[in-house]
Amino acid sequence: MTIDAYLAELERRLPRTARRRVVVEAQEHLRDSAARHRAAGLSPHAAETAAVENFGSVEIVARRLAVEGAIRETRISTLVALGAVAFFVVPLYVVPENTLPPAPWAEKPRDIFVLQLVSIAFWLGAGALATASAALAWTRWSRLAAPVLTAALVAIAGSVLVAAALVERWFAAASETPAWPLLAAPLAAGCVAVCALATAWSYRRADLLTG
């Protein structure tokens, strides 16, 4: 097989996002290898054939590159999700703490206190799971990163739902609270959306990580 034929077949088998870079790198390697074989006395055709054989079959090379790409995508997706979970502290704590007026009660109602604790617990759990997912993405157990990231998504969604119940209860108990702090809601929804997209991305080629 000639180098051009090999590169054409390799390009056909590669994911679209990686084709250009990989084919250019493979071409440089194959051309250099063929040049060394020609310098050793082989004919141009024999030199190209030897370079292709040394490089490896298209199936094996394409599979290896696909796995490397899947690992890279998994790592990126887990880091994106971890960042979104970390940012959730803004709508969960920073915005309410710095915008809400003093509470009208001398002692916080027990149900509001419990809802706050549960929402924070869900958020901390999401952070722990997202961190574990990101750590797994750098190990030989990277195939487990996506399921763990799914659990993190469920936890952060749970935190948002509990926080929504908390807000409703807060406004019921303190009806004069201004509504504009509710602008934190789009931030919370955005965090969940980013986590969901990152989780879906981590599953895109997760089947390649099962080997």
Report a brief summary of the structure.
This protein has 211 residues and is mainly α.
Explain how this protein is built.
- By secondary structure, the chain is an all-alpha fold.
- The protein folds into 2 domains: 3-56, no CATH class; 73-204, Four Helix Bundle (Hemerythrin (Met), subunit A).
- It is built from 8 helices and no strands.
- Helix 4 (58-87) packs parallel to helix 7 (145-173) and helix 7 packs antiparallel against helix 8 (184-203).
- It starts with a helix and ends in an 8-residue tail after the last helix.
- 28% of the residues are buried.
- The model has no long low-confidence stretch (mean pLDDT 88).
Primary descriptors:
mainly alpha, 2 domains, 211 residues, Four Helix Bundle (Hemerythrin (Met), subunit A), 76% helix
Task: Write the SSE topology.
Elements: H1 3-13, H2 19-39, H3 44-55, H4 58-87, H5 89-99, H6 110-136, H7 145-173, H8 184-203
Write down the overall geometry.
Answer: rod-shaped
Mean pLDDT, as a whole number?
Answer: 88
The biggest beta sheet is recorded as: none
| CATH architecture call of the largest domain | Up-down Bundle
Task: Please bin the fraction of helical residues.
Answer: over 70%
Query: In what range is the share of β-strand residues?
Result: under 5%
Tally of domains: 2
Q: N-to-C terminal Cα separation, in Å?
A: 29 Å
